[in-house]
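Section handout, structural biology tutorial.
Before the tutorial, make sure you can parse a SMILES string by hand: atoms, branches in parentheses, ring closures as digits. In the record below the ligand is zinc ion, and the chain has 370 residues. In the tutorial you will relate the predicted structure tokens back to the input. Do not try to memorize them.
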Amino acid sequence: MTIAVHPHKQLTEKDAATMRAAVFHGPGDIRVGEVARPKAGPGEAVIRVTLTTICGTDVHILNGEYPVKAGLILGHEPVGVIAELGAGVVGYEVGDRVLVGAITPCGQCHACFSGKASQCGHGTGYEAIGGWRFGNTIDGAQAEYLLVPYAQANLAKIPDSLTDEQVVLLADIASTGFSGAESGGIKLGDTVVVFAQGPIGLCATAGAKLMGAARVIGIETDRNRAAVAQRIGADVVLDPETVDVVAEVKRLTGGYGADVAIEALGLQVTFENALRCVRPGGTVSSLGVYSGKLQLPYDAFAAGLGDHTIVTTLCPGGKERMGRLMRMVEAGRFDPLPLITHRFALDEIGEAYRVFSNRLDDVLKVAIRP
Ligand SMILES: [Zn+2]
Ligand SMILES: [Zn+2]
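Predicted structure of the complex:
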């Protein structure tokens, strides 16, 4: 893999028509360069990005495991300041600090009005994963400026009391992790198992506690991540390399099994173990991104007669969701700061990708400052 960074172009007078951005040129090839700066059309906004991050999904793209077109700017977690407002966007001023979700629903289509905005059909109908556009089908946030589509539905003003670092992880991983707990329908007093304590699993762990679980059991091999999980909401963390996690969850629940299991990795083994951990009538809430075929062994779900619920969730976005998550941070209910372990400038993003994708130096999330 070649990750190169172009030397910073020295401009005596910053050319207002261009900006610096991390451009995907093909698998293994991301470079920071000078590209055209976006302009806001009707219903759109341009924000000057003040903070963003790298997601595991960006690493999948860079590894060639999820195809996007060459020339795309990656990244889907924007915090910034409104630089330009297109016609028809009301209630905002240039200079407002805003958080934009990783998912930018149109707010007008069948999916959006049916409460499934992440499957937004861009003005009509439904499209699977259609709400995810940044760094997927349109230019993303690892840049100095970002064009926000459907700005009226997607610009969430940031309260003065919150810093950029306190809100940047709400755009995706906190929204995704919490949604795994919400979709699982966790009830007061439930036992919840969360498979994998990466950034999203950690947020699912925090979300399970917020939803009222009496006991949260994390599953993780990495000792640092296990320790963070216990700080953020896990009562116990099991290492699947040394413990039979299905047997241990059964033992901890008096033989019944967990009420809800959240899968936050996207592997056959974790999905299957999640299913094997839950009691009859229990719920598997899946957040993982899978490839190939996922198998459902008949004995793991009572041959289809166990009243199990299997639910999948894509990160919820839109300004209402972002506002709700910011209120959780503002109220002190959730602190995302322990998850930000490293900080880089945009021009150092190649190094940030290297550290993040190889999980060097106990990294959890990197903050990127354009
Ligand atoms: Zn993401
Ligand atoms: Zn829509």
